[in-house]
Amino acid sequence: MDKTELVSSIQQIRDLAERCLAALDNHTPPKRIAKRPNTSLLRPKAMSVDFDTPMRPFIRQHAKGMNGQKKFTLLLSWHVKGDLKQEVPLAKIEKHWNTMKSKDMLGMEFNLAFSGRARDEGWVHCKRTGFYSLRANWKEIFKSSNG
User: Fold this and answer.
1) 134: phi then psi, degrees, rounded to nearest 5
2) What's the pTM?
C-alpha cells in the first residue's frame, strides 16, 4: 500500500467517524426509569407479623438476632396475638420459653431479668404482679439494635 492509498483510507475512516458522531448527537437516548429502592429491606418485620402462625414457627421466624427482652416481648405478643388489652401469666411465658431453648428457637433458658428489661424498654406492662401485657410501642423489638 502506497502513501496516497493510506491517506485515502484514513480520510474514509475519519469521515465514517464524523458521521457516527453526528448521528449520536441527533439521537436522543431513551429515558431511564429510576429503580425504586427495595423497601422490603427497609421495613421492619413487624409489618408482616402473622399471629395465626403456630408458636414454634412464629418464634423461629422472628427471634433470630434478638436479645432476651425482645424474645420475651415476642413470645408475649404471640400469646396475646398483638392485643394490648390481654394479659398473660408469667408462668405461662416461662413454661413455653423453656420448651424452645434450642439455638434455632430462643437459644437460651428463661431468665426473669428479661421481663424486667422488657418493662424498662417500655415494650411490656405489668399492671398486676405476675401478669404481663403489651404496650403500644412493642413492635420496636423488630428494629435493629445497631440503628
Assistant:
1) -80, 155
2) 0.66
Q: How many whole angstroms separate alpha carbon 22 and alpha carbon 93?
A: 75
Contact 94, 110 (CB under 8 A): yes
* pLDDT score recorded for residue 37: 64
Chain segment 28-49, per-residue pLDDT in tens: 666 777 776 665 554 444 457 8
| Length reported for the chain | 147
Q: How far apart are CA 91 and CA 134, in angstroms?
A: 16
Domains of the chain: 39-142 (1.10.10)
Dihedral through CA 14, CA 18, CA 19, CA 25, nearest 10?
160
Q: Please, what's the b/e burial string for 11-21 (b: 16 or more CB within 10 A of its CB; e: otherwise)?
A: eeeeeeeeeee
pLDDT at 25 over 80: no
Q: Is 88 helix (H, G, I), strand (E, B) or coil?
A: strand
